[in-house]
Structure formats: C-alpha cells, structure tokens
Amino acid sequence: MIKRITAGLLAGTLVLALAACTATVPISPTDSSGLGSETIHVGIAYDSAGRGDLSFNDAAGAGLDRAKKELLVQATEATTEAENDQARAETLRGLAQGGSNPVIAVGFLYATAVGTVGKEFPDTLFAIIDDDSVSADNVVSLLFSEEQGSYLVGVAAARATRTNRVGFVGGVDVALIHKFEAGYTAGVRSVNPGITVDVRYLSKPPDFSGFGAPDKGTAAARQLISNGADVIYAAAGGSGSGVFEAVAAAPAKVWAIGVDSDQYASAPEAVKPHILTSMLKRVDNGVFQEIQAFAKGDREGGSKRYDLKVDGVGYATSNTALNRYKDDMEKARYRILSGAVKVPSK
Fold it and tell me: Where is the signal peptide (predicted)?
C-alpha cells in the first residue's frame, strides 16, 4: 500500500520515499510485543544525505526496516533537501499531518523544527537523534556515547600505525563531531602518547555540506596522507566514501576507519581491504527500540542514552585484519565499563 503526502503540505521542499508494510494484525494477549490491535504508523525524517549514505541515515533506516518486519508497523520516510529550519519543519509537519506517530527526526539539525512542530502536535511523540535541547512532554532525545566507541577504534589505530601519525576527518566542526575526535584521540594516546593525531574538518556552521561532500573527504584525506598519516578515521557521514577512495589510492599502505555502520560490509570490493574497522553507532538499535517502546505504551518525553553498557556503540569486526588488535580493544572496553577509564567528550 502506498500513501502519499500532497506537495502542498510540504511546500515543495522535501522528497518523500514512502514505504508501508502490510497492515498490523491483532496480537493475542499472550504475545509479548504489546502491540495489541493498534496500527502504528511511524514517520521518519532523514537529514539531507538521505538513505544511501552508507552511514548515519542508513543506520536509522535499518532500525525502521527491522521494526516494519518484526513489529509490523507501517512507515512513511522523508528526506529534506533544503538546508534550513523552515524546510525541516515542513517535513515533520507533513509526517504528523499524514497521521504518523511517532515521528523520528534523524540528526541534531532538526532540533529547532522539532521544538516548533512538537508544539503544534501535542498528541504526537517526536523522537530526535543526537540532540537534547528540546524539553517537552512529547519529545524524546536519543543520545549516543560516540566518544566511547571512538576510543576503541583509536586503540586500534594506535596499534596499526607504522608512522606514529594518524588522521581524523570530521564532517562538520560542531560539538557532536568533537565527541568522535576527543574519544579517538584519547584512545590513540592511551596506547602511545607520542602519536600525532592530525585533524581536518570539511565545513563549519552554517555550512553543513561536510556531511555529504565526498570530494571534500578525498581532498582532506590526501592532505593527511601526504603529511604521513597511515590510519584515518572518518566521522563525516556521506563524505566518508571520499576518504575511503583516497586511502585506497594511496601509494603506501594506509588504513581507513569508518563510522556509524559497518562500512567494510557496504564498501566496493576494491576499497574493502583498506577499511580496518568502523565505529558502530547503533542508531538502528535506537530507532528500533524507540518504536518498540512506543508500541508498548511508552509515549513520554525525556532522553535515552545508548552507550557501551547497552550496545549503543562498538566496533565492526568484518575485516579479519583487525583480529591482531581486538585483545587490546576489548581490554579498553572493560576499562571503560568498569569506570577505570573516563572517556572525554570534548
């Protein structure tokens, strides 16, 4: 079944990719899902990179896909192309007007829009990923401890480097990405304080293009490689593919570290051998669990934290080359979980 929102509702500012599964079937009282006979229709608003970024948005989409399969929810997906608060508000407003509840906003750039549209639809639950600035009874923040996962891949980078110089490419110079940088740097220096961490950001606010500009990622990675970096961690959304291309084309062996999703699994065959690991930010778990909680009757605002303790962050093990460093990474994980290590977020 296909459901469409009229262009008039969205003021021509968004592109909708609508996906609806079969209607929810009644659940017996003994079923543990808590869905009952209620039909849940989820709305999800991706940031401008949309589905197909092989990173942040795809992770959110994977959580939605799991909910459609396991919880039998219906869904409407939307991507806002215009980079402004008005366009984002129209995206959320269109989803809410179309009957979606809950409505999930993928990324901190939706904060102002969530604050505005949340007041207009007090009976709709809005969930926003990576932002806790909106305080309302119908707004829930889904937050992640990115610095913890970044610390672990920093340990791997420190063990893998031969030049004692590693790189970091951040998509946009904002507080959220600083968490990735801070954790990565701390992990590297926990192994060897003498390793240099060379940092590049692709754009600064109000320019948020750094999350979707592979050419900028390629240029930054080439600079890092020319400066001697032989391991590069890319926390840059869709721009990470450009980093991977530069790493794969390097004249000497250089490792790339991906982010959010297992980017080894989705990389072209020629690039896979160059991706050592990825810092997993389990946005898929966050999205799925929030939809599941809603289905079970949790309709309250507030915030939920996804860290190492709840498998909210971690690292990918698809490339067997990582095996030689896993013991050190697991030791670091246990030190964080025990409280012996407090990972900085700034």
Answer: 1-19
Are residues 173 and 224 part of one domain? Answer: yes
- Residue 207 sits in which domain range? 146-281+316-338
Pair 92, 202 in one domain: no
Distance CA 84, CA 78 (A): 15
Whole-angstrom Cα distance, residue 63 to residue 312?
A: 13
Domain assignment present for 346: no
Q: Is residue 291 part of a domain?
A: yes
CA nearest to 271, candidates 235, 324, 218, 228: 218
In Å, how far are 9, 305, 309, 329 from 335, measured between CA atoms? Answer: 51, 19, 12, 10
The single-letter code of the amino acid at 305 is R
For 68-108, the pLDDT digits (tens) are 999 999 999 999 888 899 999 999 999 999 999 999 999 99
Burial code (b: 16+ CB inside 10 Å, e: under 16) for 307-320 equals bbeeebbbbbebbe
Residue 290 resides in a domain: yes
The single residue listed with the structure tokens 């989705």 is: 266
Q: 294: which 2 tokens?
A: 């809603």
Inform me whether the pLDDT recorded for 244 exceeds 90.
yes
